[in-house]
Amino acid sequence: VQLQASGGGLVQPGGSLRLSCAASEGNFDYYAIGWFRQAPGKEREGVSCISKRGDNSWYLDPVKGRFTISRDNDQKMTYLQMNDLKPEDTAVYSCAADSLVMSLPGTNWCRPGWYDHWGQGTLVTVSS
To answer: 3-class DSSP state for residue 22?
Structure first.
């Protein structure tokens, strides 16, 4: 599967953005999809991940209640709706896929090292 992320940009604190991740090749519903971010000088971290059928999701604690992940398997698209953005959300956001990740409730299955197929990133800058 090949992935391409889009939708980043400059937004003021409190604003919203929707990131999109388009997939091509392969059977999209074979893969769990995740959104990851990397801020300057920091390690990449999992932001939100969604299971193959979209029936389970995981969120990083600081984004809970502000970000929403969704997917459309027919269109081979995954989205990350980001509301009430904060300056600390500034980072390069990337989407990634993996067919072996198991979305077990109560576990962190959104670890960057568990995802094998990566798209290029899109920069999100939250600043006034």
So the answer is: strand
